[in-house]
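Reminder to self: tokens first, then the designed residues, so the page reads top to bottom the way the pipeline ran.
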């Protein structure tokens, strides 16, 4: 798919960009199973927080791999499929709004990450994390600020997390069509806040996030 869309100099430039994003994977090349970790959904007013965990093959090439926020929805969907096909192992962890309200969003994010790691079919020997150090995990970790733009493994995890969560929010949209979840994915847009004030909270709203609006 990706190779057919790039030729010549553009293909070389894309491969060079990806090579630069392998800096951390190359630095820790002695590790046999490097796992990227990232999350999606820390900021929304509704829905879960989702974490992705991905172990890519050493020689894996996935063109256009990048921070999920820098990609179009169409590109993310294509990469979502390609990552799952090519990964040595992948997993997602999902923590819902009730737990987010109970333990706070940071702790819920850590829990989603731990779930994602536990769900891997291959035990990683190193975690490359986007910005955080996950408590309660007995695996060596390297937190990388803006890691989803600096590591192919973290970028892959960010796409898995983002697309998984987006799919869930589209499903929630069929249950609660008046809120527009398919469009804003639970983030605090003007339209979402207006719907929240008009219709009140749904079971997927984070009560600790919406107290200023209802």
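Designed residues (214 positions):
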């Amino acid at each position: 798919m990706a190779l057919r869309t790039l030729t010549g100099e553009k293909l070389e430039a894309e491969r060079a960009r990806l090579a630069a994003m392998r800096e951390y994977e190359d630095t820790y090349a002695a590790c046999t199973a490097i796992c990227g970790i990232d999350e999606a959904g820390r900021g929304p007013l509704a829905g879960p927080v989702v974490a992705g965990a991905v172990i890519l093959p050493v020689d894996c090439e996935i063109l256009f791999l990048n921070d999920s926020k820098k990609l179009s929805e169409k590109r993310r969907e294509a990469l979502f499929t390609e990552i799952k096909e090519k990964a040595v192992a992948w997993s997602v962890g999902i923590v819902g709004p009730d737990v987010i309200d109970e333990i706070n969003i940071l702790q819920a994010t850590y829990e989603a990450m731990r779930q994602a790691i536990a769900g891997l079919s291959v035990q990683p020997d190193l975690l490359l994390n986007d910005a955080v150090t996950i408590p309660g995990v007995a695996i060596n970790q390297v937190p990388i600020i803006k890691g989803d733009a600096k590591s192919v493994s973290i970028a892959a995890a960010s796409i898995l997390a983002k697309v998984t969560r987006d799919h869930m929010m589209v499903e929630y949209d069929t249950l609660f069509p008046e809120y527009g979840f398919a469009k804003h994915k639970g983030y605090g847009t003007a339209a979402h806040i207006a719907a929240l004030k008009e219709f009140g909270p749904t079971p997927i709203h984070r009560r600790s996030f919406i107290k200023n609006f209802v």
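The radius of gyration is 18 Å.
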